[in-house]
Amino acid sequence: MSKAFTQGKGKASLNDGYFFVFPIVVMLAALIVYPMVYGLYISFFNTNLVTKWDFVGLKYYKEAFTNPDFYTSVLLTFKFMILVVIGHFVVGFILALLLNREFRGRAFFRVVFMLPWIFPEAVIALLFTWILNPMYGVLNDLLLKLGLISSNMTWLGDKDLAFGAVVFVCIWKGFPLVMTMILAGLQSISKELYEASDIDGANRIQQFMYITMPSVRSILSTILILDSVWWFKQYTLVYTMTAGGPGTSTNLISLSIYKTILNDLRYGKGAAWGILVFVICYCIHLVYKAVLKDE
Amino acid sequence: MKRKKIISTISLALSAILLASCGGSTTGESGESGDSAQSGEKVKITVMDSYAPEDPHGQYVYEYADAFMAENPDIEVEIQSIASNDIYTKVAAMSTNPEELPTIFWTSADHIPTLVDLGIPEDLNNMLDETELSKFAPGVVESATIDGMLTYYPVAVQPQAVIYRKDRFEENNLEIPTTWDEFVEVAKVLSKDTDGNGENDQWGFSMVGSNNSSGQSRFMSYLWSNGYDLVKKEGDKWVTDISTDQAFVDVFTNWTDMYTVDKVVPIGITEVDYPSAAGYFSSEYTSMFLTGPNALGITYSNNPELEGKLGSFMIPGDYPGTTLSAEGYAISSYASDAEKEAALKYLQFFAEHDAEQKFWKASGKIPATVEGQKVDFITGDDYAGYLAQIDEGCRETLSFPGMNGLKSALGNAYSAVFSGEKTNEQAVADLVTEVNTLLEDYN
Predict the structure, then answer these.
(1) Which of A102, A175, B32, B150 has its CA 20 to 30 A from that of B161?
(2) 3-class DSSP state for residue A33?
(3) Cα angle at B131 between B125 and B136, to 5 degrees?
(4) Predicted ipTM beyond 0.85
(5) Cross-chain Cβ contact B419/A245 below 8 Å
(6) Under DSSP, is residue B95 helix (H, G, I), strand (E, B) or coil?
(7) Helices marked H in B24-146 — which ranges?
(8) B202: three-class secondary structure by DSSP
(9) Which residue of B lies nearest to A155 if distances are taken between CA atoms?
(10) Dihedral sign, CA of A262, A267, A270, A276?
């Protein structure tokens, strides 16, 4: 009797659970699962989504592996992501350590260093496009006056300079978030730990390695994942500054897919590339999960 | 039990709301407007317009729409301003949800084949009779026709030609170039270091070197004028003249050499889009500009002192380097009959009501109608090259639905050489691969 009652109650609460999650399941299915399944479906077709639906099977997947366009774009995106994330961590960490110290005007500098994060990406991209303009740009003018260059440089028009310029702007745009998160972590470390280590004779480097780093490690892990994913799928800044050019110098995979789908209207090919990028992102997630399992 | 009922009701209600919002409106705008028309209410037409955001002529789009609404109080016109390089992408994307399409959208000969392939434009042969069609200048209707379908209502023609500084040609005793080799020689003479700092600050040619529609179209003109059919139909297959033959590589190289070797175009060429190139020309940094006649409007607007100093000549080369490039407005085939009727009325008003031709004069565009082409502003030296090209005959409008893909491939090729990423030979080899892959998708 008692067992039957418990079983009945268990079933009832299970049903309640289903009722509770039903709306969100419907929403997830409509907004996430359906687009992904539809993307997978159209990747098997040569289609303009309206008047042409020619089944091509795995053609676009095979092309992605045999034609260098896809994997060079993916490799370039990894290179871009790694450089930008490293830049964010280096600049963010240094500034967070400085802003964690007591000095006059600290609040002012905290606000100033947050500004790049506040401005919209398109605004920053246009701003730097003008700064780096080969004819009228203020950077060339400044460098010429300082005697560091002898003629105007084409910062966004040269294969060797364009990628570096874009990475620099993306670091400038994104470091405040990393800085703020690290600063928040630093401020949560008890001063008593440092005082105790002073008494034990620890120097600054030892304090950094054995107190600061372990204390903010979990925050760093979280930022690492968020920042990597965010910049892997970066689109706006790079598109506005160079549209992926010159040539393929800054042609990140997000731009390649955008152009394939919305410029060339080759939805099947673009969808196949999108699916492959999803698989890559999922693999990154698995790697992070394995590496950071202790966090 | 009561709790369970409440939970069930809330869950079902939330699900219903979500499903309803995901499904979107099932009553299209056209249906609503059609009903409105029948009930005697205003018909609303939306115009996705690329002239509207442009200076100095964009103001007249709004002025004409206001004048039209004053004359036709039963029709409401809403102008949606959007850049010409973006409108095609937007309209093409909207084709998957046709109820969202505007009633009228701006288009050009470059974009229309793809939009026809998507089934978006209405065939205006169904709406215009012979009398109406005879109002267009010779060649204009043909230019907007694909497979017998009149795909849009032309309001201007924009063949490409080269506008140049007559005064600088006279100062340097230069003749009008008729071949591309001569063109480069003339451009070299016109490229100068005027302030003596060892760097050129005046260039012969205002090339548009950006990898976008403006740059790609001009490169296509260059290749056409050298006798290359970039895409053509043989039987039921699309084929191309683009190949790794040395002759094609040489022609390709001559274009990129203007930047990398001859230095007759401004620095940072991959960043020079149409507005920048037009700006350089009107600021007198450059002396020749391969462009449509609209650049004349912009140039005079930016620098009125150049009036009387400009001429134009046909694109060098032995073959026509341009289509007539009629541009105008297409009517959505998904609009209701009432909307289509109102849209056509608006377009006819736009093309015919202004005796002063303010829109065309300000924009520098050549009117598409016989009556419009009688205006005196196109009779000077500055329009001579365009009119000569129209008289001599232009290329047929392309009907290849993958035009944008083809243009992207061309843009990627020259851009890679300009940036130093590839040699001319590598760029052409990759271009051939890219174009052949593209044609596979359309064959």
Answers:
(1) B150
(2) helix
(3) 75
(4) no
(5) yes
(6) coil
(7) 29-38, 58-71, 84-94, 112-117, 130-133, 140-143
(8) strand
(9) B268
(10) positive
